[in-house]
Amino acid sequence: MTTAIDFAAAPATDLALVPGTVVLDEVIGERGPWSGVVAAGDVLTIVDLYGNQAVDTLFYGAGDHAKRYSAQATIAAQGNIFLTTGTVIRDQEGDPLMTIVADEVGNHDTVGGACSQESNTLRYGHHTRHQHACVENFLIEGSRHGLGKADLVGNVNFFMNVPVDPDGSLGIVDGLSAPGKRLALRAEVDTLVLISNCPQINNPCNGFDPTAVRVIVTRPGV
Ligand SMILES: [Zn+2]
């Protein structure tokens, strides 16, 4: 029998992928939303505390919410649909918002989109209509920043495994992540990060059991 490491209790300085002064350390509860501004130069480490937890994420210019994440610009610039170390998270003008500077998983999705009450009903049946979903998390948390439905664009799904078959079809399959797996994003400009810790229970994106994740922001060189 192995003893599991308690990543929720580990010191933030041990978990941050880029060392520095810890300026933020919060747990995002299972199924819950989160938002925060990561200042230019600071590094956001996201920890998949219990493994296989999709972290739906959107990015906006902190000073100008009209600057927002663009999956198209991000994919086109790097010539690859998967996000990993070296990926520059770009806005619709192609300007950098953040850069993935470390990644313990290998690839992250940005074509699968966010779950919603409507898409759940379509995919999984009307009995799922009442279930909480990522779009609702984005709307609840985004409203704190004056963001509404028109501001939601195609998002990143960190820790979500969406392979593309040779014929171009997508699948949402068992994750590549595991307890304690992390990735780190360095802000290139002051960036508002909006997260839905995905509540989905109808497909394997959360191992059918949504769990908490942890966000740590470090300021290197201080
Ligand atoms: Zn979701």
Automatic annotation (TrEMBL):
Q: What sequence ranges are listed for the domain DUF1989?
A: 27-192
Q: Which domain of life is it from?
A: Bacteria
Query: Matching InterPro entries, A to Z?
Result: DUF1989, UAAP2
User: What is the official name of this protein in its record?
Assistant: DUF1989 domain-containing protein
Species assigned in the record: Gordonia paraffinivorans NBRC 108238
